[in-house]
Write a structure and sequence with these properties.
elongated, homodimer, 501 residues, 21 strands
């Protein structure tokens, strides 16, 4: 019966008309059930589900498994070496494909003192974005909720709202008598905010259950324009610590300054050798293999970044010139000095030649740059600057044998991933979302940050697409995390569009 | 009678023969009075005379005034805005010159827990340099003291031993019936280890009392060869903090790395622009005016530094190439990065583009380089690197107007001083010391470090010479400060030679 209903839509109306009807149907359901939908969200936010709190995590996992069951899914708890995964499968007779939906049910750790509410796990409803003029509203007393109202709680946007949103979208489709066109599998991660350390082996272990045509990642915020957004990839990361050595112990800068080699200056010279004055990396081959097709370029150009406004907000007048725009820049690997330290500054400064100087570096990777390869190029560059590379603090013989000594420690890496901008099934997702919303949607070829799930995408072996739905200003990873209800409700429309594409 | 005795020596024997006789006379006195001399030293070390301890400082000042009185000096306490100066004058009928002797009677602050004795102000006698095999000896039980024995106490070498030594030298000369040839004035500083903040105004206030032909500074250790040493100058110092600004707040290095300018990299580039790979400053005019006469060069070359051994000890294989040798290097101003800081390293590192990066710099000055002039050259160099210089954290308008912003803070400066290597009276001192000791003496054209008394030398307007006498390994400014008794006794011979030159 549901299958027949779906055929009616698909065969008799245009995509755009279907999209508008679908949106109307989902919004009608949402309007009729606001109190229940918000109550479901609040209930899921009341678990102190921080990755380190195993008991709360397991209670939330069991609770969410129950929510999957209610939607007629075949669900189970998948045990891992760490927190459990919650898995569910919704089979559609005659489905044209299978979608695997990834969310995480853990939230960032909290520092309750910095929150403007007594408990980050007791959700608070406000009539707008937290400010002096917004009021706290009684959640239980409301039947109707306005789009600008927000729920404040840890994991509200990151990433509980999308979980409740996708389940509500299934409820709304069912109520409208519309059957999804895809089999839907859901996998909910319980330790994403701890870096998903057990996800890759778990995915390998449960590989047989997870087969699909596309992985959809329902995590992260919309583009800052708050337009519907899809994300084709994420940069990876590799971190490297460089420590340059001077004298064995700090020396009196009067007695030895000008004579004992200064490790802070030598570190500065080494770092300076890696970039030109415009911020472009000059290490040979660092940007090899990166190229944009005309389609890529169009997608990059269409992202509605207001770079002038962004620079004003961030407080600088001139960006590095790795790309022409922010979107272009993040298509390239980065080399970022994230920390510097040598001896002391300010009131603690002492008149010494320091014994060592350290730079902490992160290198963001893109699909074309493999960590080992890039690391090799960085080491080659350091050697070309006449530095002797060691992996431990130098002993006497090493100090006697080499004028410039640097300890290089690589602390691990996470790969990048990126789905081709013209991937057919990704293109279908873009079309489906476009059909329910007016105006262009934002397509991000790569997001700049790194997600711990990239390695599991490699294991799965099928393409992945990020579909964020929550508000950009959600204070993700900060105190006073929130979700704007209008975004929460609109997310359901987006999810329903994907499920019925 | 005494005056006549002096004439006998001066007119009838050669300088060298006089020197040997004098040394014999002083050593005979020292041998005969060891118990009393050591007791005098111990008594002076029992005051907890740290500059911040005003009550103890004043007790020690009063005690030392009494010791000056005992030697027939006209003495007084000279009040300052801080700790008092102790002043004494010993007039010699027919004196050919007046010598002003500078010592300080305060010591470095102590951290008693790090000392190998219960109380740094309860002197301990050891039968050698502190080690597993040296023993503590009962001071009071001894009548004879061996040269290798050491007294451990705060201010033992720095700078109480020279005070007791110069007074004992007067006692010994009196016992030998030898009159000094110079009027001798003594000024004892009570807050040198706190930077002598009140010395310059005090010197201006008491200028009429302090007239002399030469200032002799009885402070600091001998050259590490432990040869008799004279020091013609000391470098000055100026400290500068450079803070380069990036985005207003630290940014996510994934979202913005490659695009938001990185202040740590820009600071590295700025620092790197200041020196060549061999450590020579390339700021235009930085080394202007520095030149060595053949006499200067000879003096520099004669300093018996074992640079190979020094590099092995300090743990590096190649020195900066500002000069050919350590002694040459410290004739030039230095530019030393004494501290670096930006965001975090190690376990605390975060994947951010830092908002700022700071370098703490000290610039050691020489007589030819005036602080204001050198500072102007540094600022000019920074501007030539296209940096906009500010003196406070930049506001929005400044951030919007300038791509590269650096806050430059100059924290004050102390001038260098240097007496010409061929200054006639300084040459007499060198000859007098040479006459009492076998072998060459070490002449340091400039010591690398800075002494807070340099500005008062400028006020006094007459030449100055450092005559250190204590052992190089005295742990000055560290726990377990000590003076080797052989050096303490030999210092008296050196002082007597100067007083009778």
């Amino acid at each position: 019966m549901r299958k027949i209903m779906w055929f009616c839509f698909a065969l008799t109306v245009s995509t755009a008309a279907f999209g508008q009807d679908l949106r109307g149907a989902i919004e009608a359901y949402e309007q009729a059930h606001q109190k229940e939908i918000v109550a479901n969200l609040v209930a899921a936010l009341e678990f102190p589900a921080v990755a380190a709190d195993e008991a709360s995590i397991r209670r939330k996992a069991d609770y969410l498994k129950g929510e999957l069951d209610k939607r007629g899914m075949l669900s189970e708890i998948l045990e891992t070496e760490g927190n459990p995964l919650v898995f569910g499968k919704f089979s559609v007779p005659g489905a044209v494909r299978t979608l695997l939906l990834y969310c995480h049910y853990d939230g960032q750790p909290v520092d309750s003192d910095e929150w403007q509410q007594p408990d980050p796990f007791q959700p608070v409803l406000r009539d707008g974005k937290l400010s002096d003029s917004t009021k706290v509203l009684e959640i239980d007393a409301r039947r109707k909720f306005e789009d600008d109202w927000r729920i404040y709680a840890r994991s509200a946007s990151d990433d509980t709202a999308p979980i409740i949103g996708l389940l509500t979208a299934l409820d709304a489709l069912k109520a409208a008598g519309v059957m999804p066109t895809s089999n839907i599998k859901v996998i909910l991660d319980g330790e994403e905010e701890a870096g998903s350390p057990n996800l890759v082996p778990a995915i390998e272990r449960y590989r047989d259950k997870l087969g699909a045509d596309l992985l959809l990642i329902f995590d992260g915020p919309l583009h800052q324009s708050n337009r519907p957004t899809v994300v084709f990839g994420a940069r990876g990361i590799m971190t490297i610590d460089l420590t340059v050595f001077g004298p064995r112990v700090p020396l009196h800068s009067g007695h030895y300054g000008n004579w004992a080699p200064n490790p802070a200056m030598r570190l500065a010279q080494l770092l300076a050798s890696m970039k030109d004055p415009d911020g472009r990396v000059v290490i040979e081959g660092f940007y090899d293999g990166i190229d944009f097709t005309p389609d890529d370029q169009r997608v990059l150009d269409e992202v509605p970044d207001d770079l002038g406004e962004l620079k004003r907000t961030l407080g600088f007048s001139e960006a590095d010139k790795v790309g022409e725009t922010l979107q272009e820049a993040i298509q390239f690997p980065s080399l970022n000095v994230r920390g510097l330290q040598s001896a002391w500054i300010g009131g603690e400064a002492r008149t010494i030649v320091p014994d060592r100087a350290t730079a902490a570096i992160d290198v963001r990777l893109v699909r074309e740059t493999k960590p080992d390869d890039l690391y090799g190029k960085i080491l080659g560059h350091i050697e070309a600057q006449r530095f002797h590379i060691v992996s431990e603090d130098p002993d006497d013989a090493t100090r006697a044998a080499h004028a410039r000594i640097v300890k290089v420690i690589r602390r691990g890496s996470t790969s990048a991933y990126r789905t081709d901008i013209n991937n057919p099934i990704a293109t279908q997702v873009v079309s489906a979302i476009s059909a329910v919303w007016d105006g262009p949607i934002v397509q991000k070829r790569t997001s700049g940050g790194t997600v711990p799930i990239a390695p599991f995408i490699e294991v799965l072996g099928f393409p992945a697409l990020g579909v964020p739905t929550v508000n950009f200003d959600n204070n993700q990873h900060s105190p006073n995390e929130n979700v704007r209800l209008g975004h929460f409700f609109d997310g359901m429309v987006t999810f329903a569009a994907i499920f019925t594409m």
